[in-house]
Specification:
Length: 271
């Protein structure tokens, strides 16, 4: 008699529930999502990306709020970076277009079929989403500086966080962007296995690590840089060349060049 025959229906259901989802299944799910994203029209990608840029700015806001009320102590960063997770929760759970998620999602179809058409579609998706994210971040910065929508004490906390981010050199932003890109790509890979509270928890844990580690995220970091540009504390060229582009390159290297490439390498024989 087989083991399956010895198990009752309830036991079989428990086995199915506890059985790990094969990596090849996760690969296929993300690949299909990538194909869907590549086929979406410009307007859908653009406005979802702008919304994501606005929403991710709440990470800077909430971290700044906590920064403004915490004492200057070594442990304070362990608390303030809980606020950094808020924007990512909004963007990911609302299924908005965030550039760093796209370092893995549309790349899997490209790895499977590296044609000129797929290269063009991927470049199109990246260009639209990144530009839209930056526009959303810039709009948030303008409103925060000129809209006076926050108490001055809380806004000072946001400026403190932004100035600290801007102190890093271009090389540091590039280097610190690599682990951030890797973690976001890993998050996208893990999420299909999660349900309910587990999805929220994994987003909080991994994005908290990015904030706590002082890593560079091209979209969230852009809000911090744009805030200083709008206030006249930082030149736009310096913000782009010294912060945004290096973080972009690091995120792509960590997300696509390392995590996604290694994921594809381990599964290519199975798929």
């Amino acid at each position: 008699m087989s083991e399956d025959a010895e198990l009752g229906r309830d036991e079989k259901n428990r086995v199915d529930a506890y059985e790990k989802v094969p990596s090849a299944v996760i690969f296929e799910a993300i690949r299909r999502e990538g194909e869907h994203e590549l086929s979406r029209p410009f307007s859908a990608l653009w406005w979802s990306g702008v919304a994501a840029g606005l929403a991710i700015s709440t990470s800077v806001l909430c971290k700044g709020f906590l920064e403004s009320i915490l004492p200057h102590a070594d442990w304070a960063a362990g608390v303030s970076n809980l606020g950094y997770t808020v924007g990512f929760l909004i963007v990911i759970l609302a299924r908005m277009q965030l550039f760093t998620e796209n370092t893995i999602t549309p790349i899997l179809p490209l790895f499977l079929a590296p044609s000129r058409a797929n290269f063009y579609q991927t470049a199109r998706l990246w260009s639209i989403v990144l530009a839209a994210n930056l526009v959303g971040c810039a709009a948030a910065a303008v409103v925060l500086v000129h809209g006076h929508i926050l108490p001055e004490a809380r806004f000072d906390g946001i400026l403190t966080v932004s100035r600290h981010y801007a102190e890093a050199t271009a090389l540091e932003h590039f280097a610190w962007g690599i682990p951030a890109g890797f973690i976001i790509a890993a998050l996208v890979w893990i999420l299909p296995r999660m349900e309910g509270a587990g999805e929220v928890l994994i987003i909080v844990i991994l994005t908290y690590v990015i904030g706590l580690g002082g890593m560079s995220h091209v979209v969230a970091g852009s809000t911090e840089l744009f805030l200083l540009v709008v206030r006249g504390e930082l030149g736009p060229v310096e913000a782009v060349l010294g912060g945004i582009l290096p973080a972009f390159a690091g995120n792509v290297l960590g997300g696509t060049g390392i995590f996604t490439a290694l994921t594809y390498a381990q599964l290519r024989e199975e798929i």
